[in-house]
Amino acid sequence: MTKAKKWDLPSRQWLALTSILLIAGAASFAVPLALSVTAGSPFDERYQAAIQLLDAVPIIDGHNDLPWNIRKFMHNQINEFRFDEDLKTISPWANSPWSHTDLQRLKRGRLSAQFWAAYVPCEAQYKDAVQITLEQIDVIERLTDRYSPHLTKCTSVLDIKEAHKNRRICSLIGVEGGHSLGGSLGVLRTFYSLGVRYMTLTSTCHTPWADSSNADAPKYDVKHGGLTPYGRTIVREMNRLGMIVDLSKASVKTMKDVLAIAEAPLIFSHSSAFELCNSSRNVQDEILQLVTKNRGLVMVNFYNKFLSCSENATVHDAVAHINHIKNIAGIDCIGLGSGFDGINYTPKGIEDVSAYPYLFAELMGHGWTVEELTKLAGANLLRVMSEVERIRDIKRLNNEKPFEDIPNFRLPLQTSDELFNCSNNSL
Ligand SMILES: *[C@@H]1O[C@H](CO)[C@@H](O)[C@H](O)[C@H]1NC(C)=O
Ligand SMILES: *[C@@H]1O[C@H](CO)[C@@H](O)[C@H](O)[C@H]1NC(C)=O
Ligand SMILES: *[C@@H]1O[C@H](CO)[C@@H](O)[C@H](O)[C@H]1NC(C)=O
């Protein structure tokens, strides 16, 4: 087995894990290897095995809202930001229930790649959503540069694998909410060229082209009844570009409409199982089955209110959601999308980004194999991303042209065209 291939763990048994880790870790393994780790092993042994596994295979999280906290707490002024120190001791992070992330804890959590959310609140829709999104992309970029080489920008499967080999943490960018487009395919394409690799179609508000989860209970605020024709164009353009479509926070009808036309696998970047907690932010079993057909991914969110439908939850609730989605959608269609830094109640046992080994030790206790844990950690996301890249490459080879914006599709906001009268040639 070559070093470059070490994430392709073929093992089905713990014995195999042990021998593979011996190779992967070479002489550097100080801890005694967990020769006999099974579901019934003591927690400490499973925990050590989880750490060894997560050192050997990439672990990728689908959603973290740190960039928005940087804007809220620091107005994006990060030159004095001490992301490499213990933020649990530094104000205002120390006092905020919304803060779960710093560099030390990312390393303790063995994270290989993080999708940072370039999130803009719905209040900015029809106003300056595009500008604020660009500023959030910029702050992700600046944070990544400032903490290079610990953090490194990644935009492809190859980047993620390289970074993992070199023990760097990938910064990936996801735009959270189609309102960030300002209704423009030109903006979508520009986001892609800036490195954005997924876009959540809706945040907690409808866009002019897709309904959000507000269309479902308890609000039943239906606007379009799913995806509009322009919304279908946006999904097709994302498939052409190679940007992953994210359905977290969409309405059930929007999910179905997108799943019916998507040419590439899609994700739910931070959603859990509706069957176990009936939040409209969670994914229903009927949709989980469609995700299997699409070869997509549901990345489980750790927000207590989505796990137990209350403020209180534990790692056992997270395990139950992970097991449920595995059972319904299949082992190839599950991942992790914590939502850290965008949630104010976290489960006991998985309070912050350092907790992934703890979660994996719990899953070992539920009989998860190395192969299954490897898929959950990152192999499934890498598979989805490769398929999205492959479809993009085929479309490029076929010379498929960019979709054009709908002429006169205008959001009801004042544009500079109107300010300067460019559209009526009166200047
Ligand atoms: C969840 O279930 C409760 C109790 O049956 C119900 O009141 C609530 O409306 C449901 N919520 C959703 C989103 O279906
Ligand atoms: C549930 O969480 C709330 C808020 O975090 C806390 O005050 C309360 O004591 C918890 N209840 C239980 C039963 O743990
Ligand atoms: C733009 O046109 C409107 C009427 O069409 C006019 O009232 C306004 O003064 C013009 N603005 C500029 C900057 O020329």
How would you characterize this protein structure?
It is a single chain. This protein has 15 helices and 9 strands. By secondary structure, the chain is of the alpha/beta class. The protein has one domain: TIM Barrel (Alpha-Beta Barrel). Strands 1, 2, 3, 4, 5 and 6 form a 6-stranded parallel beta sheet that branches. The chain starts with 13 loop residues before the first helix and ends in a 7-residue tail after the last helix. The model is unreliable at about 1-35 and about 425 (pLDDT under 50). Bound molecules: 2-acetamido-2-deoxy-beta-D-glucopyranose (NAG) (3 copies). The site of one 2-acetamido-2-deoxy-beta-D-glucopyranose (NAG) has 4 residues, from loops.
Topology of this protein?
Elements: H1 14-25, H2 43-56, E1 60-64, H3 66-74, H4 103-108, E2 113-119, H5 129-146, E3 151-153, H6 157-165, E4 169-176, H7 185-193, E5 196-200, H8 229-241, E6 244-246, H9 252-261, E7 267-268, H10 285-294, E8 297-300, H11 304-307, H12 315-329, E9 334-336, H13 356-365, H14 370-397, H15 416-420
Parallel strand pairs: 1-2, 2-4, 3-4, 4-5, 5-6, 7-8, 8-9
Helix pairs in contact: 2-13, 7-8, 9-10
The protein binds 2-acetamido-2-deoxy-beta-D-glucopyranose (3 copies).
Membrane topology: Lipid-anchor; GPI-anchor
Cofactor: Zn(2+)
Family: Belongs to the metallo-dependent hydrolases superfamily. Peptidase M19 family.
